[in-house]
Design brief:
Elements: E1 6-15, E2 18-28, E3 33-37, H1 44-51, E4 59-64, E5 67-68, H2 74-78, E6 81-84, H3 95-105, H4 110-123, H5 139-151, E7 157-161, H6 169-186, E8 189-194, H7 197-203, E9 206-211, E10 214-219, H8 221-226, H9 231-236, E11 240-251, E12 254-259, E13 262-267, E14 275-280, E15 286-288, E16 298-310, E17 313-319, E18 323-328, H10 330-336, E19 343-348, E20 354-357
Parallel strand pairs: 3-8, 3-9, 6-7, 7-8
Antiparallel strand pairs: 1-2, 1-4, 4-5, 9-10, 11-12, 11-14, 12-13, 14-20, 15-19, 16-17, 16-19, 17-18
Helix pairs in contact: 5-6
Length: about 375
């Protein structure tokens, strides 16, 4: 079995004597795009700088292509790595000059420079921008050139720190789509840092979830969404807290939970008498004008409190005796005649709910009481 392109073992990074990063194991497979995903301040950028060999850890080993990185290897390996900062910094000259500068620094011969420029301009749709100056570009165009400067170097490892942050929705979606296609064509092994779930899910072959300086879960986006393992990860993956309740009955994993005057069915490992918190994803909620005859176990009569725009969907805030959120298309809102004060039935499958121990039932050591 082939060794990973990158392996990290027992990595520790400290700042002013305080441990800010502790990663027992991490691997990056050749040709994949891995999203390092977590909230701001969780240590993602520090980890990226460390595996880029720009920051030295206090302890641990880093292996590139099966070889441990020693002090004499850093300069050689950094030629294989491109680490792209979040905000583009341009040098004097045109877009063409900025694209070629890195190749000149690396001593690439002129003929090869021309060939790479042609290829990169085609991939990133930059032909019309080559003779412009950076200050003449829009924010989206500047970020496109910024990414192109990384790809033109043809690195073996590409490390990106929040590359789509700060762009408006149209430019961000367009650039993400182009990046996804280009990375597949080039096959460059990539780590992408992001705190935005949609970016991670769309772009990544695998995700590594980071919380408080530790990588707490690694898997495909589908694996992490379907089995988040903790309430913290479930929230990061877009789940909302629904209710706190008590398990009244447990039958082969199907739980009957009583909370806020409602009976709610969900699947989980808890037993009768346990206090739980239910979480869900708003896109899993179904709205109907009347309670339908269906296999969906949970239906709640609800009143619409508010409707807000949310990206290309509408966020419907509902009162079912507890708060419930639903993402609904504009056409569905119009079809159902929804507005503040209107009545509707809200349904959610038992399989779409996640159950977690009530935090009040967990002691300070992390064990359930």
């Amino acid at each position: 079995m082939a060794r990973p392109g990158l392996e990290v073992r027992n990595l520790v990074v400290q700042v002013a004597g305080r441990k800010i990063l502790e990663v027992s194991y991490f691997d990056l497979r050749k040709g994949e795009c891995l999203a390092l995903f977590g909230p701001n301040g969780s240590g993602k950028s520090t980890f990226l700088r460390t595996i880029s060999l720009l920051q030295k850890p206090e302890a641990g080993e880093i292996y590139y292509q099966g070889q441990a990185v020693g002090p004499k290897d850093r300069e050689r390996l950094q030629q294989k790595i491109v680490y792209l900062l979040q905000k583009p910094v341009f040098f004097r000259g045109t877009v063409r000059d900025n694209l070629l500068l890195g190749l000149r620094f690396r001593g690439i011969e002129r003929k090869q420079q021309t060939a790479r420029l042609e290829k990169t301009a085609e991939l990133f749709n930059l032909r019309s921008l080559l003779d412009k100056f950076p200050h003449e570009l829009s924010g989206g165009e500047r970020q496109r050139v910024h990414l192109a400067r990384a790809f033109i170097l043809e690195p073996e490892f590409l490390y990106l720190d929040e590359p789509f942050n700060g762009l408006d929705v149209r430019f961000r979606e367009e650039l993400m789509s182009d990046f996804h296609k280009i990375r597949k064509v080039t096959g460059v092994t990539t780590v992408l840092v992001t705190h935005i779930r949609q970016e991670a899910v769309y772009l990544a072959d695998r995700m590594a979830v980071m919380l408080e300086g530790r990588i707490v879960k690694v898997g495909t986006p589908e694996e992490i969404s379907s089995a988040p393992d903790s309430s913290e990860i479930s929230r990061l993956m877009g789940q909302e807290a629904l209710v706190e309740g008590v398990v009244e009955r447990a039958d082969n994993g199907l739980l009957e939970i009583r909370g806020h005057g409602q009976t709610i069915y969900a699947f989980g490992r808890q037993k009768a008498g346990d206090r739980v918190v239910l979480t869900f994803r708003p896109e899993e909620v179904i709205l109907a004008p009347a309670r339908p005859a269906s296999s969906v176990r949970n239906w709640f009569e609800a009143e619409v409190r508010e409707i807000r725009p949310y990206d290309r969907m509408l966020l419907v805030l509902l009162d079912c005796g507890f708060r419930l959120k639903a993402f609904v298309s504009r056409s569905s809102v119009e079809e159902l005649g929804l507005g503040p004060g209107s009545k509707v039935w809200a349904g959610i499958k038992a399989t779409a709910l996640s159950t977690w121990p009530d935090p009040k039932e967990i002691d300070s050591s992390g064990n359930e009481k």
